[in-house]
Design brief:
Rossmann fold, elongated, 434 Repressor (Amino-terminal Domain), about 45% helix
Length: about 350
């Protein structure tokens, strides 16, 4: 096995003290520019890679960021949105030599405790606040702890740096698409009511219909899960005046709805049109393929990571708006039945 190159080896090759190598490679004062170049050249020749622990001790950073997901691990495994989001984070932080500390918890109280433990143990330099809730207690906690944080799709009053993707334009385009197909009776399958983005999507659905002179129909809970979509289909399809178009707050619940509608003998889209939100790849393989509003989880993750690392570095940052979510029309929506 090849021995790992150490800071001692670099110092010996450059003919300088170890403290000079540390200063040069961590961009600290104390060495001349000529000496700095000689040290960097020696490090490159030897293939020296600074250890994270060493960098942490030198720069008082952990070189890691945290994401605590308020989801049951089994549910998280089913939702591909998080794969794209985490991939976007990784694609930025890896270039900066940071690592992601990912934890999951279905309990709100335990989520708060995990943030406290991450800060108390100096395990992370900052955190992402995803799936924000109304009056989310995490905002006060990270402020109290002095922990840099970035929010994902918060409401307008959010006091910390944030990344947002407009949802209204995509949902409005979806409603206009369905109305253009002759639909007048609509239902909505919502997400957990405590989540800000659940309320945002339902409000956008209502406002879009009302702007076209159509009264919104029934709302069923879907919980952002496949099983929630099954239960929502049972409730909506049993109503005396059945809607002809159903908009779901995410793709997983839409997939469950489609499956249960077919189980009850309804054809999608001939009898009922169904659409989702998120644009996960799996929706394109469904039969019928799922009409959806396409979001950008990888780009959101990338921008959130960029914003968080800038905040950790003490920079003054502005909120980031990524391009709006967009309608993708597939086979699960069609003309309203006569």
């Amino acid at each position: 096995m090849v021995d790992r190159v150490t800071i001692n080896d670099v110092a010996a090759r450059a003919g300088v003290a170890i403290s000079s190598v540390s200063s040069a490679l961590n961009d600290r004062p104390g060495v001349s520019e000529e000496t700095r170049k000689k040290i960097v050249a020696a490090a490159d020749e030897l293939g020296f890679v600074p250890s994270v622990r060493g960098r942490s001790l030198a720069g008082k950073k952990t070189f890691s960021v945290g994401l605590v997901v308020h989801r049951d691990p089994d549910v998280l495994e089913m939702d591909p949105f998080f794969g794209g989001f985490i991939g976007g984070i990784e694609s930025y932080i890896d270039e900066r030599g940071f690592a992601l500390v990912l934890q999951t918890s279905p309990s709100s109280e335990e989520v708060i405790n995990r943030y406290r433990r991450l800060a108390a143990g100096r395990r992370v330099d900052g955190v992402f606040l995803n799936e924000l809730q109304i009056d989310d207690p995490r905002v006060a906690v990270v402020s109290e702890l002095g922990l840099p944080a970035v929010g994902i799709n918060p409401d307008a009053r959010f006091p910390l740096p944030s990344v947002r993707q407009d949802h209204e334009a995509g949902i409005r385009a979806l409603v206009e698409h369905l109305v253009g197909l002759g639909h007048e009776r609509f239902a909505f399958v919502g997400g957990p009511p405590q989540f800000i983005h659940s309320q945002q999507r339902e409000l956008a659905w209502r406002a879009s219909l009302e702007s076209l002179g159509i009264t919104p129909g029934p709302v069923a809970a879907g919980g952002f899960t496949y099983e929630g979509g099954l239960e929502a289909a049972d409730a909506i399809l049993a109503s005396r005046i059945r809607p002809t178009a159903v908009v779901c707050a995410n793709d997983l619940s839409a997939m469950g709805f489609v499956a249960q509608a077919q189980h009850h003998g309804f054809d999608v889209p001939s009898d009922i049109s169904v659409a989702g939100y998120d644009g996960i790849q799996l929706g394109g393989y469904l039969r019928p393929s799922l009409t959806t509003v396409q979001t950008s989880p990888k780009l959101i993750g990338f921008e959130a990571a960029r914003l968080l690392l800038s905040t950790i570095d003490g920079e003054v940052v502005d909120d980031v708006a990524v391009p709006p979510a967009m309608l993708v029309v597939r086979d699960s929506t069609g003309p309203a039945p006569r």
